[in-house]
Amino acid sequence: MVFARVSGILVAVAVLAFLQLSVGSTAVPLFGGDDHARAVLWELRAPRVLVGLCAGACLGLAGTLLQAAVRNPLASPEITGVGSGAVLGAVAASVSGFTQPLAVAFAALLGGVVGGGVLWVVAGRSGDVAVRGVIVSAVLVGTTLVLLTARPQLAGAVSRWLLGSLVGRTWEHVAPLWPVVVLVVVVGTLLGGVLDVLAVDDDHAHGVGLAVVPWRSTVLVLAAVATSASVAAIGATAFVGLLAPHLARWLVGPVHRVAVPVSALAGAGTVAAADAVGQLVHVPAGAITAVIGSGVLIAVARRTGG
């Protein structure tokens, strides 16, 4: 049954990627076109599709890791400070003149780790991650907006990081992104047993001999790496990190050794679908995921009492 469902989501992601490849401002045939059509597909649409798939996979992975590490089904990059910290880092790098993809990615990673660390310190052992995460994220978003006032001429370009958009993504953005997906999928899957234990409670973890703080810190850093890579590539694509883990658990259950790679597929498919729809209605993919994700957030909060 699990194999059939994983195969089904693989097919679904492939179909959504194909749909994303087929839409755009210019109608071109996917097969048998002239040189112009092949250039549009290979130079413009193919890297956009691959960046979206990789960035969505990163967000799905980050959400699954965060929800296990902090034991909260509402946890996702945008409400744990990791996503907003990564956006702040990316914007700070751009404002400072460091616009190369690797420089932006490193700054986003630094910002994501700092954002997650601030929440870790503020939340402490209270367990009130959701509310305090929203507060920390609000402070980081406010800091980002203040930073933009120093270079208002960059506001238009930087809006991509605030909205989440795949416009203008090239092969240059694919190159540093796919290794992160492979790294986080492999390490996250290998840590599946640790995630299963962390997701229960600290007493259970201590009871089975798991060093909670080092392993939780490792998982949080891994989530920050995945989030930062995505933010550096396409900006803050809201709530993919919330949607994908719930979809993965609904499909294959809570065992993380399976749920981790499936959450990557779910995130990839979510961004592909959002970008395809976004191109049809002329809005960024992040706006689509924000509308759908906010509804899921409310539903999960009502179900869990969060």
Question: Summarize this, please?
Answer:
InterPro entries: ABC_BtuC-like, ABC_transptr_permease_BtuC. The protein has 306 residues and is mainly alpha-helical.
Count of all domains: 1
Low-pLDDT sequence parts: none
Termini, distance in Å?
A: 32 Å
How many helices? The count is 14
**Coarse morphology:** globular
Membrane topology: Multi-pass membrane protein
InterPro entries: ABC_BtuC-like, ABC_transptr_permease_BtuC
Subcellular location: Cell membrane
Transmembrane segments: 48-70, 102-123, 129-150, 177-199, 219-243, 280-301
Characterization of the model:
- By secondary structure, the protein is mainly alpha-helical.
- It has a single domain (1-300), classed as ABC transporter involved in vitamin B12 uptake, BtuC.
- 77% of the residues lie in helices and 0% in strands.
- It is built from 14 helices and no strands.
- α3 (82-95) packs parallel to α5, α9 crosses α13 and α13 (256-281) crosses α14.
- The longest helix is centred in the first third of the chain and has 36 residues, at 35-70.
- The protein is globular.
